[in-house]
């Protein structure tokens, strides 16, 4: 089965984004909450980002497309 250019582009952008994220990076989620990346992981469904939000002590899972980097640690 052939993949469309859109599918290839979005998959490439997502994979590039998760490679630059690491624990401690500050992010803003798709629902406009700020938080800190706990870890970047992968399962059978693909890559996911675990984030601890500033408004909650709990950790939440996001797709790479659902978060925006605010600040990255060196």
Main attributes?
74 residues; alpha+beta; 1 helix; disordered N terminus
Write structural notes for this entry.
- With 74 residues, this protein is of the alpha+beta class.
- 22% of the residues lie in helices and 42% in strands.
- The protein is built from one helix and five strands, in the order αβββββ.
- Strands 4-3-2-1-5 form a five-stranded antiparallel β-sheet, with helices on one face.
- A hairpin with a 5-residue loop joins strand 3 and strand 4.
- The chain starts with a helix and ends with a strand.
- The N terminus is likely disordered.
What topology emerges from the helices and strands here?
Layout: H1 5-20, E1 26-29, E2 34-43, E3 46-53, E4 59-62, E5 67-71
Antiparallel strand pairs: 1-2, 1-5, 2-3, 3-4
Q: Low-confidence runs (pLDDT<50, min 5 residues)?
A: 1-10
The counted number of beta strands is 5
Element string (H = helix, E = strand)? HEEEEE
Reported for the largest beta sheet, the result is: 5 strands, antiparallel
- Terminal CA distance reads 41 Å
**What Rg do the Cα atoms give?**
13 Å
Structural class given helices, strands, pairing? alpha+beta
Sheet with most strands: strand arrangement:
4-3-2-1-5
């Amino acid at each position: 089965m052939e993949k469309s250019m859109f599918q290839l582009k979005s998959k490439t952008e997502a994979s590039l984004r998760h490679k630059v994220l690491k624990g401690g990076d500050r992010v803003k989620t798709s629902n406009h909450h700020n938080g800190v990346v706990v870890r970047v992981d992968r399962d059978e469904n693909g890559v996911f980002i675990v984030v601890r939000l500033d408004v909650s002590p709990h950790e939440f899972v996001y797709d790479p497309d659902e978060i925006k980097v605010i600040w990255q640690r060196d």
